[in-house]
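Here we describe the complex-level prediction in full. Unlike the single-chain runs in Section 2.1, the two entities below were treated as one system.
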Amino acid sequence: MFGRHDYSFQYSNDQITFGLQPDGECHRYFREMKGGKRIEKNVVSQRGKIVVCPVEPVNLPEPVATNMEIEFDPLFMEPFSKKTIFLTFPVEIGVFVVAKKAIKALDIFSFVPQKYSLYGPSNGGAIARWAYSPIYGEIPGVNPLECGVIKLTVHNTTKEWVEVSRALFDAFSMKLYYSSELVSMTAVMRILSSKTAETEFFKEAVVEGMKKSIEFYLGRDIPVVKHNGLMEWGLV
Amino acid sequence: MVIVERLQELLQAPLFGTSITFGNLLWLVVILALSVIIARVTVTNLRRALEHKVSKNELEILLKVIYFTIVILGVVIALPNIIADLSGLLVAGGILGIIIGFASQSAVSNFVSGLFLMVEQPVKIGDNVNVGDISGNVEDISVLSTTVKTYDGVYVRIPNEKVFNSEITNYWANVARRFDYVVGIRYQDDAEKAIGIIKTVLKGHPFVLKKPSPTLYVEELGDNGVNINVKVWSPAKVWWDVKIELLWKIKVALEAEGIEIPFPQRTIWFPEALRVDTRSGETNGKEQ
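The structure predicted for the assembly as a whole is:
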């Protein structure tokens, strides 16, 4: 499913049917998910490409958040320690149309249900896409259409023991990579005190040879200033 | 040398028989032009620097204030070149100020309130608010007034003084908010089962926040049924959609499991038995 395709692209499995079909001199995009409504959009373009790739998982069912929170079993980090773990995160799939060096998001869908949460207090905190993940010591075997993998290096920069059981990531700075077997991101979480930390993504795939996803916020023509995720309302 | 002397004479020559010289007038023009140029350069640079950091409305007001401050400063510096003594002007200006002050009391009050609103920022453009008895979305905040589009789509202009002095409820100021329902079930229904069903419905909705988690409890043993209180946290921007969507889903889910919403009912008890006359088919009330 993932990749760059011609306008003749169509994909079908037991959960979804989507793609483009010619409609006169233009094309018609369609998507039908199991138990869902059929979506159709007219694409006024004769020649171009369709890119299907994972996007920042904060867009469905409608964009209300720019953060993703992953909760995991507690890690007790000794002073100045560093540990690399693998976590899973929900995947949202974007369909982009590319023609004449311009790009536009056509559709976003997902095979996993969404859940949101409040990180911090209601005044000053942030709404975040929420997901739970077990902690893995190596890349877990997951369905890339449903789950991605974050390689997260947790770094306790303090001289105290710190308990951490969640990580907050800023969607604006996510760097997603994909292949037919895996969707991945690489990030670091720097613990600054027992209550605060910052997270940052790297332009680095977990496995060599993976392609970089289109950054959806760039696809939406939103000017993006580089962000790091700041966790100032606790790590547990 | 001759040219310089001529130029000096020209600059010192009185204009129109007054004490003002051509030189004074030239300085006035130069200072005014310089102040306008400095104001424009400052404003252009500030606009570039603050474009993405300050909201458009606030930026425009700030830039206007800075522009006119610099120009007025230039005028104050330039004026002594044509008026030797500014004290007379100050007196005249003072009187004029009092007159203008009385005449524009309301406008000034709104202006000052507008500045305070911009500093305090109880509302922002796009917020869902309640100002006094007006509810709607904030469309614009200008120096003198705040524009609200009510939920009926009606344009309402509220003077900033009124906004500043009114009680303001901003539904979008915080990122999340709580709402609640009271769901009644019949006395013969299992309240624990009903709570479990409602929890399942809430768990399945993306915008019912995981944290803070929903709270459900039996609130009251009411006249007609058992009342279950359901408190739900949701993102502030979608709370209303979630509220109206969830209530029906809860009702459908409860009924699917055989739990019904009770209707008002009364059990009437008679201290003595009723006698029914079966021959006429009518009930004659209490036995005589």
